[in-house]
Design goal:
Blueprint lengths: L1 H57 L4 H14 L3 H17 L3 H17 L3 H14 L5 H11 L4 H12 L6 H10 L1 H4 L5 H13 L10 H16 L6 H14 L3 H11 L14 H16 L3 H13 L4 H18 L2 H14 L6 H12 L2
Length: 368
């Protein structure tokens, strides 16, 4: 009896509490529905906003009307990045049309966002405007603030590329040294490698630098070797290796080019210990094999080419490696090895640019 009463009491208590669960469940469902509706409305607004922005960019309306339209779009933007984009576009159009007041007003808006909201894209847009306006503007100031305030952002990396892409002809030497001058201040950030790479690239764009040893070519090589030695985690490291190899080759330093490529293929903590998986390493091995072939180091050349063919995943380089291997076997007088290599190339690389030459060569080998 006591057991029955205890169970009855528990059941009654559970039944009495169950109605309280209904409002909670209803609230949860309601919150989810509101979130979904808000998300859909936001997505719809974004699609509509971007469509209007593109139309304002492409439209043939008068400059004053277009700037006003872009200003309105900036005020309606839900995302700060969109507001920056529309404001910067309005400023660009205003400056191009000679609307000084509108251009100044929009630049001030961007300046306020860049300073108070610490927004990297706003600072980048200001730099973009300054570059487009031309000399005598705040290019250096905006570039400095972008690099020092936002060194780990996409927009800081874009800042380097922007100055290089929109450079004035004849300013390469100045630009190269300006890039390189940022190295010490950016040390410890991911942009340190950028300052070295772009500095070297600008110096190497000067006339005659790649044809003879000049102060600029030595300075560029110094910057690239600094990048290769100390900033292997930089996204510009691969480009730096190839640019340094090109420079050494153009100056006739084949031995130094060989050593550079050999060291670049060594395992390294920041690049990973497996140098047999990426396309960049395959390109280096193919280039190194060509150098070994010129130096008469055929065994070393065949070893590197064999890795490209048998281990690397890069399909686009395998036919080049096979063709060069066949040429080396021909030089060594190994007709059987040459025939096997050419046959493999013809059968497995029907897309190869060496296909016709390989068939012709194979026919000649088989006639012997």
């Amino acid at each position: 009896m006591d057991t029955f009463m205890t169970n009855f009491s528990r059941s009654s208590l559970r039944i009495a509490r169950e109605p309280d669960l209904l409002p909670r469940q209803f609230l949860v469902v309601l919150v989810l529905l509101v979130a979904i509706l808000v998300g859909c409305a936001t997505g719809s607004h974004q699609t509509s906003w971007f469509g209007e922005f593109q139309q304002a960019q492409r439209g043939d309306t008068e400059a004053t009307v277009r700037v006003a339209t872009l200003d309105a779009l900036a005020s309606r933007a839900l995302i700060p990045a969109d507001a920056c984009l529309a404001t910067a576009e309005a400023a660009t159009r205003a400056v191009a049309a000679g609307l000084a007041d509108a251009g100044l007003r929009n630049r001030r808006v961007l300046e306020e966002v860049a300073c108070k909201a610490h927004h990297p894209e706003a600072r980048y847009r200001l730099l973009e405007l300054a570059v487009q306006v031309g000399p005598g503007t705040d290019v250096d100031r905006h570039f400095e603030r972008l690099l020092l305030d936002h060194p780990e952002t996409f927009w800081a990396r874009q800042g380097f590329e922007l100055l290089w892409r929109l450079r004035e002809p004849g300013t390469e030497a100045h630009l190269g040294r300006r890039y390189a001058s940022w190295y010490q201040q950016l040390s410890g950030t991911s942009l340190a490698g950028h300052s070295l790479f772009y500095g070297a690239q600008a110096l190497l764009a000067l006339p005659g630098v790649l044809q003879s040893v000049t102060p600029e070519s030595r300075e560029a090589l110094h910057l690239l070797l600094l990048l290769i030695e100390h900033h292997s985690d930089s996204v510009r490291w691969d480009d730096g290796v190839l640019l340094a190899a090109d420079l050494l080759a153009s100056l006739g330093y084949r031995g130094d080019e060989t050593r550079l490529l050999e060291e670049a293929l060594l395992p390294h903590p920041s690049r990973g210990y497996d140098t047999l998986v990426d396309v960049f390493s395959a390109r280096l091995r193919l280039r190194l094999a060509r150098l070994y072939q010129r130096q008469g180091k055929f065994t070393k050349a065949l070893y590197q080419l064999g890795l490209v063919v048998n281990v690397h995943d890069s399909l686009s380089l395998k036919d080049d490696a096979l063709w060069r291997s066949a040429r080396i076997y021909a030089t060594l007088g190994k007709a059987d090895a040459e025939r096997r290599t050419l046959t493999f190339l013809v059968e497995h690389c029907p897309w190869s640019r060496h296909l016709d030459a390989a068939r012709e060569r194979l026919a000649g080998v088989e006639e012997r």
